[in-house]
Input
Amino acid sequence: MFLLKLLLFVLVLALLIAFSYFNTETVNVKFLDYSLSLPLFSVILGSVILGGVVPTLVYTLKNAYLGNRIYKIEEALKALWTGFNLKAVSAFRKLSAKDEVYYPLLLMAKGEEQKLQNRSYTLGIAETFTAEGLLRKDIKKATELLEQALGKNWNNLRAKKRLRDLYALQGEIEKALSLQREVIREVEKAFRKEEERVLSALESYHLLRSETFDREPKYKDSAEYYCFRVVSLLSEGEGRKTKKVIKEAVEKGFGNQVFDMLMQAKRLEPEVVEALEESKELISKELLCRLYIRLGMFDRAQELKPHVSKTLSFMVELASSHTSKELFEHLKELYRPWRCSSCGKEHGRYKFICDNCAEWFNIYIGETPQEGEYDYRLR
Ligand SMILES: [Zn+2]
Output
């Protein structure tokens, strides 16, 4: 490397000397009343050097300014993340924190996040930030804010994903679906697979709900897709083909979810029950017992009593005795065996998104899977 540099230096020097040798005639340089006779080569070389020195100087100064700014940003963030809020506030102020990208952080340090939405920024950061804080408190307001954020900046992917969650939670599946199609196009490659699962769930759920069986969802990797396939086969009178589909779903770890959805949809046809019998080792005992009650197979339900929760065990008793239908219906309402492994909320049935924390595919029955084992948590 050094040799190469030396060679280059010698070459440039030789060129300069040669250039000077051929351009020794003098020229008259004038400025206002002054005039000066200089050799041509010195004028040209002088201009070239000046042309190099000025940009280098500007560049160095700019670099120093940016370095200083980065240092200040880092100091401000460090203060904020380690709990020195007043220090962070003054640091963000010095950074001319009226800038839209810092402003949420400044307000966060001040504990005044709610003030964000009144600002007239263009990136939609403020609205998204506020909406996330409002998720559990006021879903309507949060939806409104996210719609505003996207109105300002359609490229705000974060707002798009959050709004999709809120639409899905409020049952506006078509709206969630059209946003998710955009998310798929824009999302970074590493997160694509997870988003495809969400699209698969939304699309299948939508087709299922609108009873559209002449179309196939584009992506297959979700419990909703398998539920859609089973119901569509049953509707087309192709029940005997469902066994294979259910087997595949169970193998992929969607067994519990699919059977729960089929129970909710009242599609426990004989072929489905047959498939259940074949794969019951892989189905949660709690769910299996609940399915037996629904199917009126009380003997089987009784056998499972030692393995299920107290509530369900009591429900088995009530359902088998036929004496207290009202009490059974009441208890059924209170029965919540599905649990969100993210926030802990208990649910009466499987849902693709938790209405408490808006996490996708995180609601399980029985044992919660180990890390990595069909844990389709999204951030
Ligand atoms: Zn949750």
